[in-house]
Design goal:
Length: 54
């Protein structure tokens, strides 16, 4: 069961007509967490090195 692909299946075990992979909530949290870290790093760089030049 752990080796099966994470896809939408109907109760009979067949692939549904609209095949889509299941996206666990953890991956969304990791994605947005990474975006926040990148934005904070850019803001830190600007505050530390770019703004003092003006």
């Amino acid at each position: 069961m752990a080796d099966e692909p994470r896809e939408a299946r109907d109760p009979h075990g067949e692939l549904s007509s609209e095949t889509r992979t299941v996206n666990p909530a953890g991956s969304e949290a990791i994605k947005w967490g990474a975006i926040v870290v990148i934005v904070l790093a850019i803001l830190y760089f600007l505050a530390r090195y770019v703004i003092p030049l003006f």
